[in-house]
Each structure stands twice: as C-alpha cells, then as structure tokens.
Design a protein that fits this description.
This protein is an alpha+beta fold. It is built from six helices and ten strands. Strand 1 (about 65-70) and strand 2 form a beta hairpin.
Length: about 220
C-alpha cells in the first residue's frame, strides 16, 4: 500500500511540475500581438532632403546615370532642359540607391524595357514605398520617342508617373507629346536589346534582369 501511495504522490507531483512549465513557456497573447504588429527596427522613413531636391537645370545638366545590370552597363544622359522634374526624380532615385537590386520587370519585344518598380528591390522598405507614392507632373516635350530614349511610365491618368521608367529599343512615335522623355542612352543600347530579347511570358520576363546598382556621375565627353 505504501508503495502504491508513493507512486500516486509521484504522479501528482510530476503533473504539477509539467503544468507550471507549460504556463511559463506559453507566449503571452499581448506580447505576441505586439511582436506581430511591431514595425521592424530598420523600417524607418527617411525625411531628409534628397541630393537633387530643388536643383536648378544647370546642376542637373551634363549628368549621366549608369545602370549596372546583370548583362552589362547602360549609360543614360539626362535632359533636364526638357523634363526637369523627371530628371530630378530619376537622379534622386539613383543617388539614394533606390534603384539598386530592382529589376526590369516588363518587356515588350522590339519596343521597350521597363524598370523602376521599387517593389522588386531586395531591400524593400517604407522609404521605397514612400517614393513609389510620390507622383510627378507630366512633361511631354518636343523630344521624339525613338530608339534609345528614356521616358517616364505612367497609367492612363495624367500626372501619375512615380518611379517607373522605360527605355525604347524600337520606335514609339505614338508616345510623342504624351509621355515625359527625360534621357537618352549614350552607351549600352546593346545591353537594353539583350534584356528585351530575354525569354518572357507575354510582357513578363521569365527571369527579370537585375540592376545591381545605379551610379550618377558627370557625362564623359
């Protein structure tokens, strides 16, 4: 009998210890909710002015942006005299590294390649989201949309351009006077051609080509 009582007592004690351990290890519902809804430490919005904010045309003139892609480099000369806001926006995207690790997410065979979708970045954060929500005015100038021209992409709505841009590898005269041409490819148009001819499902590349980084520097004469 004593042995039976001992076994019964031992079972009760072990059950009590197991219950206490379970209560200590169970997550606090309030704490779990806090962690789920908490903003990551690195998810902060950068409110400091960008390098080309308020820059005059003279400062932006003569600047080139080189897109160093997985297939080679594409150099683009800016044209602030015809589209100052579009150029300012693009220069800021490049100098703040916002275009780094993004991809050319749309291609239309023998027509355009489109980049600037910041959601394709490997470093997507609140600052990139803010940039994608900032709309810039249309600047449909006299520049013809021919091969090598770089222009702002937008929806059918006027003044809806944000960060998306396209590079023409063919001619697009039907875009003249409607879209904001702001740059021209001075080197690497063959790289744009290679991106354009990559395998795709419709307009979606099977393996989008990445922009490793974008570099701003004075154009070399």
């Amino acid at each position: 009998m004593k042995f039976v009582r001992f076994i019964a007592t031992l079972i009760v004690l072990l059950s009590f210890v197991a219950l206490v351990c379970a209560q200590e290890s169970a997550p606090n519902p309030g704490e779990a909710a806090k962690k789920t809804n908490a903003r990551p430490a690195n998810q902060t919005v950068n409110n400091t002015p960008d390098p080309f904010d308020g820059a005059p045309v003279e400062k932006m003139a003569g600047q080139c942006v080189t897109l160093e892609t997985e297939l080679g480099a594409i150099e683009i000369a800016m044209m602030p005299e015809v589209a100052p806001e579009s150029v300012r926006n693009f220069l800021n995207l490049a100098t703040t590294h916002s275009l780094d690790t993004t991809t050319f997410s749309r291609i239309v065979k023998d027509f355009v390649i489109q980049g600037g979708n910041l959601q394709t970045s490997e470093h997507w954060n609140l600052d990139l989201a803010r940039r994608m929500s900032h709309k810039i005015p249309d600047e449909p100038g006299i520049v013809k949309h021919v091969r090598g021209i770089v222009s702002m992409a937008r929806t059918e709505e006027a003044n809806s351009a944000t960060t998306h841009f396209f590079i023409l590898v063919g001619n697009g005269s039907h875009l003249d006077g409607k879209f904001s041409a702001f740059g021209t490819v001075t080197k690497g148009i063959e790289v744009a051609d290679a991106i354009n001819h990559a395998p795709a499902d419709g307009e979606k590349p099977e393996k989008p080509i990445k922009i490793n980084r974008a570099v701003v520097a004075p154009c070399k004469k």
